[in-house]
Amino acid sequence: MSNQMLGTFIPLILLIVVMYFLIIRPQKRREKEVNRMRSNLHVGDEIITIGGICGKIVKTKEDSIVIQVGADKTKFEMMRWSVSKVVDSVEQKDIKKDVAEEEETTKRPKRLKKAAEEEAAAVEETADEAAEEAEAVEAEAEEVVEAAEEKVEE
Predict the structure, then answer these.
(1) Contact at 8 Å (CB) between 74 and 58?
(2) Which of 43, 103, 132, 146 sits 20 to 30 Å CA-CA off 27?
(3) Rounded to the nearest 5°, which phi and psi values hold at 78?
(4) pLDDT at 103
(5) What is the dihedral of CA 50, 101, 107, 54, to 10 degrees?
């Protein structure tokens, strides 16, 4: 009976051991790294919060930090646990590049709008010239008709 019982529990024990090494241990390691990163935050670090806010740390306290965000340098006080990651200089350059590309894409419609306005003005000018030519041709046609009527009357 005991051999049969042992044979039944061995797969269960192996499953628990595999789960520990594949799931629980790596999760604890990541948690330790995140806690170490949050405890080593210093003034001047560029961070990204869990909510996606990018900013620079201007003041640190025991359980909270004060970050500065935006062009108008708005300051927020946040809890340390809300920091998702510290941005290094390479990531910071990538973020600035993404912002520059986004600004460029927002400028494109203005350029396209200006080009469309210029094209519309050119089309309007061409239409005005065509209307003037049509008036001139109409005036010539009226003269020819009057001349033809005079000849008919003679």
Answers:
(1) no
(2) 43
(3) -135, 160
(4) 64
(5) 20
Q: Alpha-carbon distance 107 to 90, whole Å?
A: 26
* Residues forming beta bridges with residue 76, ordered by sequence position: 67
Rg (CA), the chain: 38
> What's the pTM?
0.49
The string of DSSP letters for 65-82 reads EEEEETTTTEEEEEEGGG
Range of the domain at 105: 88-154
Helices (H) and strands (E) in the chain, counts: 3, 5
Q: Which two tokens stand for residue 98?
A: 């993404």
Residues 152 and 107 in one domain: yes
Are 100 and 132 members of one domain?
yes
